[in-house]
Write a structure and sequence with these properties.
385 residues; alpha/beta; Rossmann fold; six-stranded parallel beta sheet; 12 helices; 17 strands; 32% helix; elongated
Length: 385
């Protein structure tokens, strides 16, 4: 394995595995963030007279069955407009590729191929036969041991892409030597999916801010009334154990929250934690809490953020997320946002360039921070970079 920045890949057919799995609703791309982040590596290869074969998944279709709703054709059109190059979209690519006088081919969804998810050696060999070298630049699927992410490396010389290495450098800074004080913001529907992350970052952070169902579970563990709010009751005992630990003093609880009744989301109410009633739903942090958290952000040297703080699909329950986004963007802290639903909100605000790193990683970034060894990164020798 090699490092792509030290390698002159010239005049080759390059298989480039990307993560173009972007959110799409009713035929419209909601965020082109991952597509845009893929472009510099593609251009790098084109400048060196390579033919570039792009591989990606999109959604979770049934293997062996074509489904237009999971087609990468919509992604191809968007990428073509962003990169300013003609791209050949190849629906039936596994047995050979026709570039049609272009230098870039985007292959149809790799998950339509039987054997992709089980890392079939037969499929890996067929994909590898299409190129001369393999460049992996899809941090978001580095935890998946599949044919197009892992298996190809059995048959082709393989290199980490530039975006992947940037992601790892930023992740390592968080894990190994974050400038202090460090504030971590962790939110989401379920504490069960981020329990290991919370425990890991309690040791590394000076402040932990919680949101969403995770916050509600901790509030319930503290015997606060949370009404009909989203909560994982089976993990309340786990939250109590964390709150009983010495490190729990780093967890910054909210002063007030924004609630609604079960029946009427159009009537938000700001309430102190002690005033939440049995019929309420906690859907965001409150104004006093926002101001309190902004003061903490302004004193931080490192900020890691994963997950929006409220029910961002409906205004005004996106206010906490938007206000903290602006505060982090205007701060001098080294800031990393860990993928997920937070990035589209930051893009909508037009402040994406004000953050140190907006990660394409999502789940893979969280696993990396938790200390889990990711199979593709191990194979690439990326941990030695």
């Amino acid at each position: 394995m090699g490092e792509s920045s030290k390698l002159e890949i010239i005049n080759k057919r390059v298989l480039l595995r990307l993560d173009l799995n972007v959110p799409v609703f009713e035929g419209k791309i909601l965020s082109d963030f991952r597509i845009s982040k893929s472009i510099p590596m593609i251009k790098n290869l084109l400048q060196k007279k390579n033919k570039v074969i792009l591989l990606s998944h999109f959604g979770r279709p049934q293997e062996g069955k074509y489904d237009e709703s999971f087609s990468l054709n919509i992604i191809c059109k968007k990428l073509e407009s962003l990169i300013g190059e003609n791209i050949t979209f190849c629906k039936d690519w596994i047995n050979g590729i026709d570039f049609k006088n272009n230098d870039i081919v985007l292959c149809e969804n790799v998950r339509f191929q039987v054997g992709e998810k089980e890392n079939s050696s037969k499929l890996s060999m067929k994909i590898a036969a299409l190129g001369d070298v393999f460049v992996f630049d899809a941090f978001g699927v580095s935890h998946r041991k599949e044919a197009s992410t892992y298996g190809i490396s059995d048959f082709l010389e393989t290199y980490p892409g530039d975006l992947l290495k940037d992601e790892i450098l930023n992740a390592n800074k968080l894990v190994n030597s974050p400038p202090r004080p460090m504030t971590t913001i962790i939110s989401g529907a379920k504490i069960s999916t981020k329990l290991t992350l919370i425990k890991k970052l309690l040791d590394k952070s000076d402040n932990i801010i919680l949101g969403g169902g995770i916050l509600n579970t901790f509030l319930a563990a503290m015997d606060h009334e949370i009404g009909n709010s989203l909560v994982e009751k089976s993990f309340i005992s786990e939250a109590k154990d964390i709150l009983a630990s010495e490190a729990s003093k780093k967890i910054i609880m909210p002063i007030d929250v924004t609630t609604s009744s079960e029946a009427d989301l159009d009537k938000p109410q700001m309430k102190y934690i002690s005033m939440v009633q049995s019929g309420d739903r906690i859907l965001d942090i409150g104004k006093e809490t926002i101001n309190y958290y902004i003061k903490i952000i302004n004193k931080s040297s490192t900020i890691f953020w994963n997950g929006p703080l409220g029910y961002v699909e409906k205004s005004p329950y996106d206010n906490g997320t938007k206000m903290l986004s602006r505060a982090i963007a205007s701060s001098t802290a080294y800031s990393v946002v860990g993928g997920g639903d937070t990035i589209p909100i930051i893009e909508d605000l037009g402040i994406q360039d004000e953050f140190s790193c907006l990660s394409t990683g999502g789940g893979s970034l969280l696993k990396y921070i938790e200390g889990e060894k990711l199979p593709v990164l191990e194979r690439l020798g990326i941990y030695k970079l």
